[in-house]
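Per reviewer request, we include the raw input and output of the structure prediction for the construct analysed in the revised manuscript.
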Amino acid sequence: STIYLHSKQLFGIHVDSPPIIPALTTSYAHGTSSTSLRHTTIGEALLKAVERSPDTEAVVFLQDGVRKTFAQLQQDVDQAAAGLLAIGLQKGDRLGMWGPNTYEWILFQFATAKAGIILVSVNPAYQPQEVEFALRKVGCKAIVCLTQFKTQKYCDMLRQICPEIETSTPGDIRSARLPDLRSVIVIDSRQPGMFHLEDVMQAGSSQYIQQLQDLQKKISFDDPINIQFTSGTTGVPKGATLSHHNIINNAYFVGSRMGYTWRPDLRICLPVPMYHCFGSVGGGMCIAVHGISIVFPSAGYEGKATLAALESERCTYIYGTPTMYVDWINQPDLAKYDLSSVHSGIMAGSPCPPEVVKKVITMMGVKEITIGYGTTENSPVTFCGSPSDNLDRKCDTVGYIMDHIEAKIVNPSTGEIVPLGMLGEVMIRGYCVMLEYWGDEAKTRECITKEGWYKTGDIGSMDAHSYLRIEGRIKDMIIRGGENIYPAEIEQFLHTHPKIKEAQVSYFDSAIHAPCAGIYLSSYCYGCVPVGLCVELVCIYVSLYVFILAAYIQ
């Protein structure tokens, strides 16, 4: 690896390959790269992918039986984008996407970007009060949904929030509670006052196709294109607003780190939800940026469906959260699935217990498992390992600094950069930092400094190669007798016991007026882990009052 002097005796690390030579002297890293930032829009990126491989499969939705080549996807995207213009949406308007992983999610992710419309990612589990807040907060002019998915009756909930829909003309809704909403687009049925998806697709006549083409000259890669709701530790949803530039570059450099730029026949299995950055950027956007094929095993998460998809589609990569990987390695019939094609994967979305990483490698054969870290506000990935990292780094860190990104670890009280290996708050600066929290200047100023640093609220430490360890959230830290205790450390210790598959430690004030840790065990542990064992283990680890809130969680 090449080492570059940054400034003031702070060093940058060249990140085209895993850093070998220690380059840092303090907890500041700059991911220098020989590859320039991408300066393109999402629509342009998709067009280039189509030109390279028009007949290659872009997406497969196994549960719905949908398969689309890049050329077919592009045709559908243009038709949907023209249809959105035809029903009255304009560049800069907001459109909510509310539902599970279906083809329409990918379709509207690219169609909105092509039309300059801002896609609002709405959690498919939202209840009426939550979806009303989200739509009002960002002023959604339209929303796309299924009639129903499992117990989520989307159309009924919209009618509950907005009873005026029943007597409205599609495209001309006038609602007291949702004053900006004009259109509801239903994917799979015809409902009073709402467009059917087929109507929107057919509305995209040649006139609007031409309007769409003319619009491309007015769309800038700095334009906002996606709003993702994130609550952090406050519980109040905030709309992290991301641009083409944020998303395109993060997808490109994550894929580059994973080897997408040179590996042939890439086929990614994507069970993570598209409404989250992990799925929409690390997955969906990589379709356009890297021209790869993505397989969606099911609309909602199903462990067995994922394993079956890995086998039947001969997937080479698997994406998942630690909880998903725990589910897969604990499937009683795991051995019956042929996972020989799966050589790589990404584990991200929450802290990854080292014992889980080891079992994924040994039990699933995913030898090139890569750990990633980021936040929605950072588009999302800021640290990511290399497939070639050794086991210790895979288990103990969340990877090293990403290309074109700066990171520092600071003392939360003073703001000073801490020495290597010392814990502090992780702060990020670079192309990846969001534009703003939509319509919330005060919250934006709270988390982004005037110098452009984003305050993650995460506690971590950095080594001389810029590998990062995450120890928890500042607001989750337990302070007892002047000692800082990090729940993540206790959780990692519990995971070393063979009978404990998954654990979560939480802070609360106890009846004896002292900070305590509540230990939650997953259902896999039920009947096999005595409560007393957890008390004994934690008391060995740290002098802390321990109270068991529950023997297991369903």
